Amino acid sequence: xxxxxxxxxxxxxxxxxxxxxxxxxxxxxxxxxxxxxxxxxxxxxxxxxxxxxxxxxxxxxxxxxxxxxxxxxxxxxxxx
Length: 80
Description:
Elements (H helix, E strand, L loop, with lengths): L6 E3 L6 E3 H20 L33 H8 L1
Antiparallel strand pairs: 1-2
């Protein structure tokens, strides 16, 4: 039986990426977050998300999708 690939979760938006893709994605994702956050009224702006500390000595981290920043879908699901 083949095991599924190990996917890591972006700490900003909660999407899953392969271990090599995440390092490419994170800077682009953070820039997108900054752009979107700056468009909000000042009272709705959020502090910049910080990268979580590694959970192991490997220097990598692995978040479950539910621990990442809530998405619009999460808010809609909780409201119903």
